[in-house]
Design goal:
The complex is a heterodimer. Chain A is 31% helix and 25% strand. Chain B is built from nine helices and ten strands. The longest helix of chain B has 18 residues. Chains A and B meet through helix 8, helix 9 and helix 11 of A and helix 6, helix 7 and helix 9 of B.
Chain lengths: 325, 271
């Protein structure tokens, strides 16, 4: 269905300096994004999902954070090897990003029109007038009432959901081929969340080429909106699968645990089965498999050797010794 | 045998906004609009609604944390709390009544990171309720009580001398829960207790709250924006929308049949 790779991350390792030692937040991460698909990246806090998204655009704060190794191939060019000027041209124009908090990602001192037209003036060399017209159309597309008037206002007069819609409109202005959405609706109400995802859906119909990376901790969103997903834990991919296969049968014990700890309406009121323990600190990662201290099917091997990411079938791989036969 | 524990009658809360020195600014905002409901002993009431619908204001008004006589807030209506055949008015100014209420209604806040004092050890945090409400209690008795609390919420005795920053989010929420059940309250109000936590930790805390309910025979008001959590934990649901309770009833009934369009939308969005 999807076969043209648009973005490829190869063996990415990112480390952060914490109290005079370097700890790996993302460790040897590889995945591909195909044209036209929505890829869900799922993980709990500290699993490295945001860090990997930021590295795609070379936004890791230096010198605290450092990209130790790896390649990020976008249209056969390595983003990590580009000069700062070249990366700036890619950011926003080819790869756009929506951040988690719409409250803090807009500049409170600039009018919406200044912030929106800036994208087009910088990347496409449009005149202000032309840029303004396109911006207004973009806002209209995301169903913001009376955009001609609203675009003259400051971010504080927009509600959270509207601000996030402005962010989405802004991200899509320059017609990017990849959109990275980092927890785009976590700070918003459920009904507004649904509205935003409806916008995403109509967006996919209008722009068939656009590849979307949706970073989230919410499996319910992934089931409704994604084609494929990767599960991250401890800076590594633990499972990679098509969404429909995953929910039919999750393979990794962590994935099973995540699904079991979600209250659902379909099953009866059984008691939730939580995963014991908590997410490990990156300074203090366990030896061997990153998940073994919390795993229900732990073996002695897991505590010593970290399992490799094993391809089980087409589009499906898992990092667990259970499947290593 | 059931008996009414909490009665809320025609409760109105209005925030009037600041009045400037030069002009009178009229931006009053009605946070709660004529709310009435009753809660029976042993119920778990789930309150759902979007942000700004008045869920938290309702909780804070019940625990008497909203100043009801001030220039910026107007509160009218009554809240009665039935305790051992005694009817207490939650807005009373009588110190004895207030202290009884404080002992029997406790609250867990949304954010465990800011609801624990960073300069107090876990021991100090947990001993404070006993020191205030049972001044005659000896150190030893308090320590025994605290150790029991810790084991109830799944923490270890070694944790007692640590400060909040040394714990993870889930553990902090456990400390906050331990503090809220310290005095064996009748009513526990949990204001989005799991929203700030990771998915795998959420289930741990939800199960803990349910276990404690069984053990201590608690009545719980559980506030959340996540209707699937409410369906899991509660026996009754109140759906709030713009300061009104638009739907109130048994959980299963509302999940299978509801009238208000907002509730319908919420339920259709459940995973």
């Amino acid at each position: 269905m999807f076969n043209q790779t648009i973005l490829e991350i190869k063996n990415l390792t990112v480390s952060f300096k914490i109290e005079n030692s370097r700890s790996k937040a993302v460790d040897n991460l590889s995945f591909k994004l195909y044209k036209g698909e929505v890829l869900g990246v799922v993980g709990e806090s500290g699993s490295g999902k945001t860090v990997s998204a930021l590295s795609i655009l070379k936004l890791i704060p230096s010198p605290v954070g450092k990209i130790e190794a790896g390649e990020i191939l976008f249209k056969d060019r390595d983003v990590l090897k580009m000069s700062d000027l070249d990366v700036q041209a890619v950011r926003g124009r080819d790869i756009a990003m929506i951040f988690q908090e719409p409250m803090t990602s807009l500049n409170p001192l600039l009018k919406i029109k200044t912030q929106m037209t800036e994208v087009l003036i910088t990347h496409n060399n449009y005149s202000f007038k032309k840029a303004l017209k396109i911006s207004i159309d973009a806002l209209k597309l995301l169903s913001i009432d009376n955009p001609e008037k609203r675009i003259n206002e400051y971010p504080h007069s927009f509600s959270g959901g509207m601000r996030q819609r402005v962010m989405i409109a802004m991200a899509l202005l320059a017609n990017p081929s990849v959109l990275i959405a980092d927890e785009p609706t976590t700070a918003l109400d459920v009904t507004i969340q649904a509205e935003i995802f409806n916008q995403f859906k109509s967006l996919r119909e209008n722009k068939k080429e656009l590849g979307i990376v949706l970073i989230t901790h919410n499996l319910a969103l992934v089931i409704k909106n994604c084609d494929r997903l990767v599960i991250m834990y401890g800076g590594k991919i633990q499972e990679e699968a098509l969404v429909k296969d995953f929910f039919k049968e999750p393979l990794h014990p962590y994935s099973k645990g995540l699904l079991n700890s979600l209250p659902s309406t379909k099953t009866d009121k059984n008691k939730l089965i939580p995963i014991p323990g908590s997410v490990p600190d990156i300074r203090n990662m366990p030896e061997g498999c990153k998940f073994w201290p919390r795993c229900s099917s732990v073996m002695s091997k897991c505590k010593i050797v970290e399992p490799e990411l094993l391809t089980v079938s087409h589009n499906r791989s898992v990092r667990c010794h259970l499947f290593n036969e | 045998m059931s008996s009414t524990l909490l009665q809320v009658k025609n409760l109105n809360v209005e925030f009037c906004g600041e009045t400037s020195f030069f002009k009178k600014v009229n931006n009053s905002h009605k946070a709660l609009n004529n709310i009435s409901f009753e809660l029976e002993k042993g119920d778990v009431l789930g309150i759902v609604g979007e942000s700004g619908s008045g869920k938290t204001t309702l909780a804070r008004t019940i625990v008497n944390l909203v100043k009801h006589i001030s220039s910026t807030t107007k509160v009218s209506g009554d809240i009665y709390f039935n305790l051992h055949e005694k009817k207490l008015n939650c807005f009373s100014n009588n110190k004895g009544d207030l202290s009884l209420l404080r002992k029997n209604i406790s609250i867990i806040f949304q954010d465990p990171f800011s609801s624990l004092n960073p300069r107090m050890t876990v021991y100090q945090i947990l001993s404070e309720p006993f020191e205030i409400h049972f001044p005659e209690m000896s150190r030893n008795e308090i320590t025994v009580n605290i150790e029991k609390l810790l084991s109830d919420v799944g923490l270890l005795n070694d944790h007692l001398m640590r400060y909040p920053h040394e714990f993870s989010g889930g553990q902090k929420q456990r400390i906050a829960i331990a503090r809220s059940i310290a005095l064996n309250p009748e009513l526990l109000i949990a204001d989005e207790p799991v929203s700030a936590l990771d998915v795998s930790i959420q289930a741990q805390i939800l199960n803990l709250i349910l276990d404690l309910k069984e053990k201590n025979n608690l009545t719980i008001i559980f506030i959340t924006h996540d209707i699937s959590v409410v369906r899991y934990i509660s026996t009754k649901i109140a759906v709030m929308y713009k300061g009104d309770i638009v739907e109130f009833g048994d959980t299963e009934k509302i999940c299978s049949y509801c009238e208000h369009p907002y509730t319908k939308q919420l339920i259709s969005l459940m995973p």
